[in-house]
Amino acid sequence: xxxxxxxxxxxxxxxxxxxxxxxxxxxxxxxxxxxxxxxxxxxxxxxxxxxxxxxxxxxxxxxxxxxxxxxxxxxxxxxxxxxxxxxxxxxxxxxxxxxxxxxxxxxxxxxxxxxxxxxxxxxxxxxxxxxxxxxxxxxxxxxxxxxxxxxxxxxxxxxxxxxxxxxxxxxxxxxxxxxxxxxxxxxx
Length: 188
Known about the structure:
By secondary structure, the chain is α+β, with helices and mostly antiparallel strands. The chain has two domains: 2-54; 56-177, Dynein light chain 2a, cytoplasmic (Beta-Lactamase, 2-Layer Sandwich). The protein contains five helices and five strands, in the order H-H-H-E-E-H-E-E-E-H. A five-stranded antiparallel β-sheet has the order 2-1-5-4-3, with helices on both faces. Helix 3 (56-78) packs antiparallel against helix 5 (164-177). It is elongated, with a radius of gyration of 31 Å. It starts with a helix and ends in an 11-residue tail after the last helix.
């Protein structure tokens, strides 16, 4: 073995055999990788913590969303006239939804935010008090928007000729069951 190492060393003028050199470079690469990994994870975790402090609404919506999602499913199951429902912020952001797909949720959220803004402005201009509900009848069903307070709106999509009295009762019941939803104050 020593003779082989001496022959290799005499050819290259180097005393480290190629296998030893390979092991050395692999070990060095592994060390650099581990150091880079530790530094990357440290900065990444720090970044995630800073994002969480900047946008606390993400945690609040996510955590409360599970409870509200269950309430919406029960709400939909309780009334045969309701096809789907969702809770949106006044900006159109989905808190919870039983809508069939996300794209429809984005469209309903945008439409709900616009309708709520127009109806609220109309209530102010006409001096009619606080907005209680918006009901729109279409040929294929109805859309009922009910403000939940603190910047959230319940949107219910119904069948063609629903029992409106029962639906309004169910909406009132759901409003009482939903916990106080709060939008965090970013000016703190």
